[in-house]
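Ticket #4471: structure output looks truncated?

Reporter: J.K.
Steps to reproduce: submitted the chain below (286 residues) through the standard prediction queue, then opened the result file.
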Amino acid sequence: MAETVSSKKNKGRKKDIPKPPIKGEGEMSFWDHLRELRGHLVRSLTAIVLLSIIAFINKDFIFNHIVLAPKESDFITNQLLCKLGMLINMDYFCVSDFSLNIINISMAGQFMTHMYISFMAGIILSAPYIIYQFWKFIEPALYDHEKKNTGSTVLVCSALFLIGITFSYFLIVPLALNFFGSYHVSSEVVNQIALNSYISMVVTVTISIGIVFELPVVIYFLTKAGLVSIEFLKKNRKYMLVIVLILSALITPPDVFSQIMVTLPLMVLYELSIMMAKRAAKKQGL
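Returned output as attached by the reporter:
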């Protein structure tokens, strides 16, 4: 009888003792991580290629209505700026007589430009899916409560990137084209802009501002990792303003109006970053 009771107790204790982890269970080797990363990269690249093909087929719409549109006087931003200039008696913003001649000086220039723009369009259009694939790759290393925020994180990152691209395309790009395209060192020198130079400026300015708009997300995760504190962010506002002004000077034409139009939203994003950092600290009980 005593042996029976003892055996029952031992059986009960065995149920309470957790099983030792099996070697390799729940753990991934370096090569496993590489295989997992390869899968996410292949899926992302597939999305880029498919969307690039769609952009390539729709050449007329992509170039005539998107890429080359900001240089025209009837572009919506140019019309609004012209009306603004009339209200404040400044003809600087009015580009009704502005004409930017784009020329190609390379045998394969137009075809290569077509390929390049199609590829960049594929990247921009597939950006939400690429962000999702990147998040799925790092998701296994996250806690359960962090995994629940997958949808909102992907949505916020995608929205900020697309907002930055839209802001740049409809405001910064037309201002830059107006400034550089109408600038003359002498009336004897006529501006004839090379196709690759035009494309390079439009794509660089648009993509760079789209990436910069991810600032709140970057600071949010830096705060969660303990690398940045809220006090640090508040204390260094003036230094951040200087950095933003320098960045604005690099990615915009050298006029005060354009720099202000970039500086203001970036500083708003910085304040939004502080709010997100506070949220992260509150969740961690700091």
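Triage note (M.O.): checked the attachment and the full token line is present. The longest strand covers residues 101-103.
Status: closed, working as intended.
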